[in-house]
Amino acid sequence: MSRQVPRFVAGRVAKDVRVGIVAARFNAKVVDALLEGCLKKLRKLGVGGKRVEVERVPGAFEIPLVAKAMARTKKFGAVICLGAVIRGETPHFDLVAGECARGVAEVSREEMLPVIFGVLTTNNEEQAWDRCGGKHGHVGEQAAEAAVEMMGVMRRILGNDER
Question: Which end of the chain is more exposed for a tag (fewer CB within 10 A), N or C?
Answer without folding.
Answer: N
